Amino acid sequence: KIAIKGIERELICPACKELFTHPLILPCQHNICHKCVKEILFAFEDSFADGGSESSNQSSPRIRITASSMDRIDRINRSGRKRNSLTPRSTLFPCPSCQRDIDLGERGINGLFRNFTLETIVERYRQAARAAIAIMCDFCKPPPQESTKSCMDCSASYCNECFKIHHPWGTVKAQHEYVGPTTNFRPKILMCPEHEMERVNMYCEICRRPVCHLCKLGGGHANHRVTTMSTAYKTLKEKLSKDIEYLISKESQVKAHITQLDLLLKETEGNSERAKQEASQSFEKLYCVLEEKKSAALRAIETSKNKRLEKLQTQVEEYQGLLENNGLVGYAQEVLKETDPSCFVQTAKQLHVRIQKATESLKSFRPAAETTFEDFVVDTAKQEDILGDLSFHSNGLEIPEINEEQSRMYNKALISWECSEKTDSADIYVLEYHKLNKEEESVTWQKTEVCGKSKVLSDLDDDSSYAFRVRAYKGSICSPWSQEVIMRTPPAPVFSFLFDDKCGYNNEHLQLNPRRTSVESRAGFPLLLGSERLQVGCFTTLDYIIGDTGIAKGKHFWAFNVEAYSYLVKVGVVPSSKIQKLFHNTPDVISPRYEQDSGHDSGSEDTFFDSSQPCTLVTLGMKKFFIPATPAAPKDPASRILPLPSCLGVCLDCDRGRVGFYDAGRMKCLYECEVDCSGLMYPAFALMGGAAVHLEEAVTAEDREYHNDI
């Protein structure tokens, strides 16, 4: 006997929304019907095979898979299961209760325990619900009789006569266990789902599930902390009983909370009605303003129309008077019949003036009024934008702010934002952006909806500045717009390449990562051995490395990072005709300028050294950017030293024969010079001492998923 009333909520499957049927316990400790697990997994298989088509989403009449669930199915199909794999595959299952992707392991459904306790409670609830509905005998000839007992070993129900026939005295069946009429048949011993011939006799405290001794010896629970089943039973039962007793002892407090919640329900209803009335009043005010503006605009158009029609009608009447025997012409014809000279002259003078005016107007005809109403066009573009942003503003919804450090402008734009609070209360974000153009008077924002906290944009123009802003939405409530952030795109399309590990690559001094996107100079033991014979001033050779792809024409941009600890790095471009000279004409001797008796002038030697360089390079090192000493450069050496940007860029314009060096974070040009682009041009790098260069990686869709995970 149990209290059935009020526990229906605990007996409903989260997938099919019906009473549990053969419930299984998921690794997350939630329950679900055995049939629902199979149908959901079958739906996943269909979506995997059909590419997630909508026709495959409705394969089950019991379970309806929503659009958000299909997004999770696509993610599971991409990462969870791979067919034709030699490695054991694991099955990911989206739990309907906690909305997490649960790993069912290699055995899938077969590795789940059946929750017999919950199944028994559901059966009791069914019996209490159907009350007088009897359980019929499974073996009677029609019409069947009401059963009086059920055999737990045979999993069947019997009336008295059939039970005696199928369980005769003196046979093995006579020893079967029988209970009152029921439809819930559970095994006497709980067997391990992974080792079907073994009964569970231990409890894994890590996985929180019963296990057998084989699971502990060599299975997936070998290194887990386990306890005996009796100990786990006693411990869990004591904890559960204690917690239940505590809740029962707090019954008065629970009832007080329920009373308070009932009041809050009524208060919520009343407040929602008042909010509706206030919203309706606000919109009614807008309607009134619009109606007044509409009436005024229509009245102005009507007044202008009447004035124009009056002028045109008068002009029509004047021109009708120019017809023969009509109006002015007819009157003039009658005046011509006058024979008395004095009377004729008296009348004809004024008439002649009118006839002349009519003749002139006939020669230069122009309507007395305009027919178009272009001056009466109502421009509502700004008002439409304002009304489009009309929504509920709440102080409780936090304003997101664009994180400029995590945002990137490269081959694509990665825009990331964050909220100061750790909890994300927004359902969706709206990112807007527009290109900054001084010639355009009105701004047209482009809008995109984002579920996460970052977005990759690929439709931006090169060498352009864009403004970005973002706002959060939760239902119909939205936050104010974030502060606008202005970012600039690269000056040219991004050029992709890797470091060349063949042409001139010195693997004794330089070390490439496996992806060939980073290079590091190793100033170690080989360098000491090479310098052992040198006693006085010498300069160590630069170790060069180039890109594996050349540029023949067009304008291109690439970016990279130089480690802060780098002593000396040179970056730039080299033509294909001078690559051989770059790698094979590097001096490795004692410099004459440092010998005490050389007599060489260091300034003249610098001039010779600069003119002999095979490639165009700028010098970086010790967290500084050095502008080359050219006639156009500042004479003060201190003004030619700039702080080293966190990310550097190179823009090569083969058509104009120029190369520029940029602060890639702000897309600001630091130095530009002419370069000979007669042949293929290759990105070039030189390192000396401890130094490292990392090529900037292209922005991809995975960057958005990575930032959202963060």
Automatic annotation (TrEMBL):
Residue ranges of domain Fibronectin type-III in the record: 399-492
Family: Belongs to the TRIM/RBCC family.
B box-type domain mapped to chain residues: 187-229
Pfam families recorded: ANCHR-like_BBOX, COS, zf-B_box, zf-RING_UBOX
Domain COS stretches: 336-393
CDD domains: Bbox2_TRIM36_C-I (cd19778), FN3 (cd00063), RING-HC_TRIM36_C-I (cd16756), SPRY_PRY_TRIM36 (cd12894)
Keywords, in A-Z order: Coiled coil, Cytoplasm, Cytoskeleton, Ligase, Metal-binding, Microtubule, Repeat, Transferase, Ubl conjugation pathway, Zinc, Zinc-finger
Gene Ontology BP term (one): acrosome reaction
Gene Ontology molecular-function annotations: ligase activity; ubiquitin-protein transferase activity; zinc ion binding
Originating species: Cardinalis cardinalis
Domain B30.2/SPRY: 477-704
GO CC annotation: acrosomal vesicle; microtubule
Residue ranges of the TM segments: none
Location of the protein in the cell: Cytoplasm, Cytoskeleton
Protein name as catalogued: TRI36 ligase
